[in-house]
Predict the structure of Inositol-1-monophosphatase.
Amino acid sequence: MIEEKKLKKYSEIALIVVREASKFLIANFGPTKNATHKTEHHFGIEDDIKLNDFYEKKLKRLTPEISLYTEEGEKNLDSDLVWVVDPIDGTSNYRVGNPFYGTQICLLYRNDPLISIISAPSLKQTFRAIKGKGSFLNNNKIKVTPLVNLKESLVSIGKGTKYSDNLWYGGILKNMLEQVRTFRHFGSAGLELAYTASGKIDIYINKGAHFYDYTPGVLIVREAGGVVTDFNGNEWNINEDSLIASNRTLNEESVKIFKR
């Protein structure tokens, strides 16, 4: 574990960098942007690359001792300390002027999340957490939902970009239809996890996204008193492409559906 002084320093650096990234997004948000094809149903935009480059240059200058794993650039998980960066989470939303998008960063120590920040610039929301110190939205402490009845729950379900993820998505909606109150799908895994941490979503489920989509929000949910597991109920780790996030009771009830 890294010492408290360094933890505070890295947290402050992450916040400074995310604030600068948020300013870039606000300045460029609005007009519809051209998309380029990446893989299957996965598309990107030029701002993804620009903001990714900004993160890499800034973090290398401020914390040269920490490795980088970014969506659009460097991919190094071999060091004890790694910055995980998703420059625009919810690119499809951002591209067409939909304000539900974010920019996010997480510091891993031996693959365990230590510091997370998720910013939703157009919504003026900043979620942050340090391991062992709670989760916050704009400096106000947050907690996951206290709800325990699955049939009363609002569930958000996300998915990856492969055709098989779309098939899974249709299947899980059908399987859960009579088990919960209602569904949502916002299109930004990081923000949906942050909304779960703050009780705005009761349960968040995803299959097929990448760990850089999940990792910042996972810590924020955990520090808000929540539980994040895979579909078998095992604690989530960065090798998993599926997760369920909620309070412990609703998480356990959700896992039962996947085990049927």
